[in-house]
C-alpha cells in the first residue's frame, strides 16, 4: 500500500471514559488535503442542482405541473418527527437532566457536541458545566437523541438555525439549549406559527 493510500485511511482512536460501563472508542477518520478542498463534493452538489433545474425546465416546456410554494406566505407542514434545533431538558429542580456521560458526543458523526463535566451538588452523578453544540456542523442525523440514556436531549423545538455569516451565532451553549421548549402542536415549525399570528393580528 502506498504512503498516500495509508494516509487517506489513517484513523484516530479516542477512548472516552463512561462511568459504570466499558470505555467507548470513537474512531475519527483524518481528512486528507483532497477531502479538505471539497472539490468532489462541490461538483456532486452542483450536479444535483442542475438536475433539478433541467427537470423543472423540461416540465415547463412540456406544460406539466410544477409544484411550487409561495414561501414565506405559504409554508409546508412538517412531519411530526422533523428534526429541528436541539434542546436540553431540565429536572424538577431546574438543573440539566444530562449526566455528562458523553454518549451523545461519542455517537455524533459530525463531532459538533462538546461537553465539560462537573460534579452535581449533593449527588454522586455528574452534570455538564459546559454543553456546546455547533449547529453549523450538525448534520441533523438525530443519533445524539437516540444515544442519550437519560432522554436529556431532543430535537423537537421546531426551530431552524438562523443564517449567519460568522461561526459564533451558530454555537449554542448549555443555558441557551435549556431555554428552548418543544413544539406544542408537533407539526408546524416555530417560524410558521409566528407568521400565522402576525397575519391574524394584521389582516
Word description of this protein:
Helices cover 31% and strands 17% of the residues. It is globular. It has seven helices and seven strands. Residues 1-11 and 186-203 have low confidence and may be disordered. By secondary structure, the chain is an alpha+beta fold. A hairpin with a 7-residue loop joins strand 1 (11-16) and strand 2 (24-29). The chain has a domain at 81-190: Alpha-Beta Plaits (2-Layer Sandwich), CATH 3.30.70.3270.
User: What does the oligomeric state look like here?
Assistant: single chain
Number of helices: 7
CATH topology of the domain at 81-190: Alpha-Beta Plaits
CATH A-level architecture of the domain at 81-190: 2-Layer Sandwich
The radius of gyration is 22 Å
The CATH class designation of the domain at 81-190 is: Alpha Beta
Summary, kept brief:
The protein is 31% helix and 17% strand.
Task: Spell out the blueprint of helices and strands.
Blueprint: H1 3-8, E1 11-16, E2 24-29, H2 33-37, H3 39-61, E3 87-88, H4 103-107, E4 113-119, E5 126-134, H5 143-147, E6 153-154, E7 171-172, H6 174-179, H7 190-201
Antiparallel strand pairs: 1-2, 3-6, 4-5, 5-7
Descriptors:
7 helices; disordered N terminus; 203 residues; disordered C terminus; alpha+beta
